[in-house]
Amino acid sequence: MTTNAFPDGAHPIAWPDNFNAAASFTFDVDAESCTIAHDPTSTRRMSLMSHQSYGPRVAVPRLLKILERQEIQGTFFIPGFTAESYPDVVRRIVDGGHEVAHHGYLHEPMQGIDAATEANYLDRGLEALAKVAGVRPVGYRAPWWELNWHSPALLADRGFLYDSSLLDGDAPYRMAVATDSGDSRDTDSRDIVEIPVDWALDDWEQYAFYPGVTGSGVIESPAKVLEMWTLEAEAHHAQGSCFVLTNHPFISGRPSKAVALEQLIERVKAMDGMWVTTLERIAEHTKTTVNEIHRHARIEVPSYPGAGASFKPARLLEAIPR
């Protein structure tokens, strides 16, 4: 069977057992790494460093207690630098039965970097997680959700099962490692699972603020955020898709925000037929049950202005026998 698109927003996935939708609570444990990658001189700013260290020092233990009370496992995306800086915290995450996934080494800016540089970031992050926690992650989330066209092949080379950085779906799918670049050598037949994300389901856009670093200065009320995220979860549940929430401990681990997060978890758990689990389990299920392989098309604009764009390939979804 070959199809060109998901008809009427339907997803080519059936959830296991008696579940009719899925949800996962994920945490990007950036700590100081994201500010240092953005500006290495930020290490001179004691208050800024304390703002970021709140994540592993105070928030992660609080969040782990919430997950334990709610009897669910989360997925923690951890930069290698964070793992080396806070090894006991990472081991506590592992000991709690949670998934540890890859999030770069120093939360490096990814936009436009070459494949060799990106490969170095991946390998250094893998080495740090292995050294600190004895973990070989199967999941990856690009810093800033900024995947490059060559990234999927680099992930496949290293045995990753899934990525969670793209924003083109409501449910997980299998994506071809090769992209249609117009190069006849672009023939890689491998695929990995993609579990899409959404900026509306990221706490950064709701709460993040530090003068001169990030944010608008408007820090939303947790009550408003709880309402918005509940509506999103209800919509995913109704259409049988996959609700993926992204939280940063130094943000959503603050007291009132953590209370709202636990209330959200309780609401999501109470939805009939909602599978609340890790991204790893969702990816494993997708890999073994979905036959269609999505091949991302690249847009070519030969000259600008004056020339129209074209897609390669014209068919965006093709079925590849397993």
CATH architecture call: Alpha-Beta Barrel
**What percentage of amino acids are in beta strands?**
15-25%
Number of helices: 11
Give the helix level as a range of percent.
25-40%
What gross morphology would you assign? globular
Q: Low-confidence stretches at least 5 residues in length (pLDDT < 50)?
A: 1-7, 315-322
Please identify which CATH superfamily we are dealing with: Glycoside hydrolase/deacetylase
Overall pLDDT level: 91
The SS-based structural class is: alpha/beta
Widest sheet: strand ordering:
4-5-7-6-10-13
Query: In angstroms, what separates the terminal alpha carbons?
Result: 12 Å
How many domain regions? 1
CATH topology: TIM Barrel
**Order of helical and strand elements:** EHHEHHEHEHEEEHHEHHEHEEEE
Largest sheet: 6 strands, mixed
CATH class: Alpha Beta
Radius of gyration: 20 Å
Number of strands: 13
